[in-house]
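In the lab's daily routine, each protein ends up as an entry in a very long ledger. A line of letters takes care of the sequence, but it says nothing directly about the fold. The fold becomes a row of whole numbers, each drawn from a learned catalogue of backbone shapes. The protein below has been through that process, and both of its lines are reproduced in full:
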Amino acid sequence: MRPQGFAGSPRGPGASASLGSPRGNGGRGADEPSRFVALGDSLTEGVGDPVRDGAWRGWAALLADGLVEEPCGADEEPVRRVEEPARFTNLAVSGAQTRDVLERQLPVALELRPGLASVVVGVNDTLRCTFDIQSVAARLDQVYAALTEQGAVLLTACLPDPGTMLGLPGALAHPLARRQRAVNTVVHALSDRYGALHLHACEGDWITDRAMWSADRLHPGERGHRQLALRFHTLLAEHGLATGPAPSPEPEFPAPTRSASLWWLATAGTGWVARRCTDLLPQLLTLAADELRHRARGTSARLDLRASAAVSAALAALAVAEQPDAA
């Protein structure tokens, strides 16, 4: 039984947009994935879940520990052995956008030939003045296609919008929410197209549960990372692709003290704010002004329709690109 606030299936909600026939998925027959490769940004890198050596761990590393059963000792009850334990490589990097995943992380992942690959990315695209949903869709389509054509089982997720998580005023939060909804819709549609195991994590009680989140309110804390790992493990186990123990939902380490959290925000957090102020903020203020104008006129729905039309055009462009040339 899934905790409230999470859902997952091979077909994500909102995936009704037609993209043509799925490609790839030819190598999904293995009992267990022998190598797990994680692609993405700071969420998958593990920001918010520090371990004792000062490094980040995160949901993907927690999931990797439960993919296969460990061989037993001579005096233990026998368990089904596997040829080799799951090998884990985390290619995710803080700040990565879909372009970084396509151009930098994907080539390395393909060389590793993973049996299981996770691609969770897109929030950083929404936080840039260069955001373009058609480009995001095209890049994700290439990444998903390349991994599944090699036979990898694909894990994806949709995520909450950063404006809501940061508690921004409505005029600032709504434009960011539209962008994240657009990314989530694309991820749903492409996950359906490529037969990915998709985690619907963009809404639910976990978003408002402060115990799940780190001090910056953008990244999960250890509890949140463990919940993500547990939900992904459930999806894999339902398809016979995870035979090891499920990650524990209970934290291993004590929560950071208030002073430690404030210190982190004053150091690493300040740098993040400074970078966004020189990139996104000028455009976001323009978007907020547009939001307020439409609100005053009672035409805010037009902004939602405009965003939906952009998503439909992005998905239609992928469908057209998939069609063979007329001969």
Residues 1-32, 78-83 have pLDDT under 50 and may be disordered. The radius of gyration is 20 Å. The CA atoms of residues 205 and 246 lie 21 Å apart.
